[in-house]
């Protein structure tokens, strides 16, 4: 199985960042919507699987099974097509550090993609979680509330640090997907880091766009709780993706092999 070297991956990431900021608004918002929906499908699958495999019987195996199916969302995003805020935090940073795009390009892209991701996640949370009741009946409701509660109740600094860990791993998944030259390699590259971040329990801003509103639609927590969580986790994700992946790899390889 062949793959690109880290130096080549940096070039791919930078070029991808340049392409992303040039997308027309309609395409950007549609692809953002799809990415938010895809990540939400992964989280919905996680809820349905883990709620039916209670931890008092299955132990930590329940969390592992849930983490094993969650990567479905990012696989859809990177192979079927989608624009995910957290991955763009890394790709656009490498392009900016290589002076291929402007800061205002980043602000515009992240703003539009955030909106698209949120609309997609809310759509899945309301239509399938609330209307169909997939997150509002029996053990599935309990699981949804418990997951959302853990996220909104986590202290601010810990949620921020958790956000760093989440997007460090998510952007490594994107980085490894860029490295692979075939679909099978991309799926393997995506699966392991995403499985790890979910099993560990890190906070991801787009995943939270689904699970916390799903609990709100069921009558638990408030939109203010969600807003605080969004700001903190967004900030942590930004550090994890832009600095720990995009920034560090640019420092390691950007000067010697500029794209």
Describe the model.
With 259 residues, the chain is mostly helical. It has a single domain (6-253), classed as Glycerol uptake facilitator protein. The chain contains 12 helices and no strands. It is globular, with a radius of gyration of 18 Å. The two termini are 24 Å apart. The mean pLDDT is 95.
Question: Any chance you could write out the topology, listing elements then pairs?
Answer:
Layout: H1 6-21, H2 25-51, H3 55-58, H4 60-69, H5 72-80, H6 85-97, H7 103-131, H8 138-153, H9 156-179, H10 183-200, H11 205-217, H12 223-254
CATH topology: Glycerol uptake facilitator protein
Structurally, the number of domains stands at: 1
The H/E string reads HHHHHHHHHHHH
Q: Beta fraction of the residues?
A: under 5%
Assembly form of the protein: single chain
Briefly, what CATH class? Mainly Alpha
Name of the CATH superfamily: Glycerol uptake facilitator protein
Number of strands: 0
Model regions low in confidence, pLDDT < 50 over at least 5 residues: none
How many individual helices?
12
What gyration radius follows from the Cα positions, in whole Å?
18 Å
Please give the largest β-sheet.
none
What is the 3D shape? globular
Mean pLDDT: 95
């Amino acid at each position: 199985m062949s793959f690109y070297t880290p130096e080549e991956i940096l070039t791919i990431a930078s070029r991808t960042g340049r392409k992303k900021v040039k997308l027309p608004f309609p395409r950007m918002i549609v692809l953002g919507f799809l990415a938010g929906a895809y990540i939400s499908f992964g989280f919905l699958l996680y809820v349905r699987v883990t709620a039916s495999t209670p931890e008092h019987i299955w132990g930590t195996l329940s969390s592992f099974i849930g983490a094993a199916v969650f990567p479905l969302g990012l696989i859809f995003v990177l192979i079927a097509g989608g624009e995910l805020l957290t991955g763009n935090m890394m790709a656009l940073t490498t392009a900016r550090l290589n002076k291929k795009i402007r800061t205002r390009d980043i602000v515009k892209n992240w703003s539009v993609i955030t909106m698209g991701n949120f609309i997609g996640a809310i759509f899945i949370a309301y239509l399938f979680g609330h209307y169909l009741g997939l997150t509002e009946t029996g053990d599935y409701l309990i699981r949804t509330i418990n997951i959302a509660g853990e996220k909104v109740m986590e202290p601010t600094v810990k949620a921020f640090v958790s956000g760093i860990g989440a997007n460090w791993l998510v952007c490594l998944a994107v980085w490894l997907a860029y490295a692979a030259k075939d679909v099978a390699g991309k799926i393997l590259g995506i699966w392991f880091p995403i499985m790890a971040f979910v099993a560990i329990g890190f906070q991801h801003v787009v995943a939270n766009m689904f699970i916390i509103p799903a609990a709100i639609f069921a009558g638990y927590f408030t939109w203010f709780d969600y807003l605080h969580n969004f700001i903190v986790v967004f900030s942590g994700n930004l550090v994890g993706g832009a600095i720990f992946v995009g920034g560090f790899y640019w420092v390691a390889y950007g000067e010697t092999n500029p794209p």
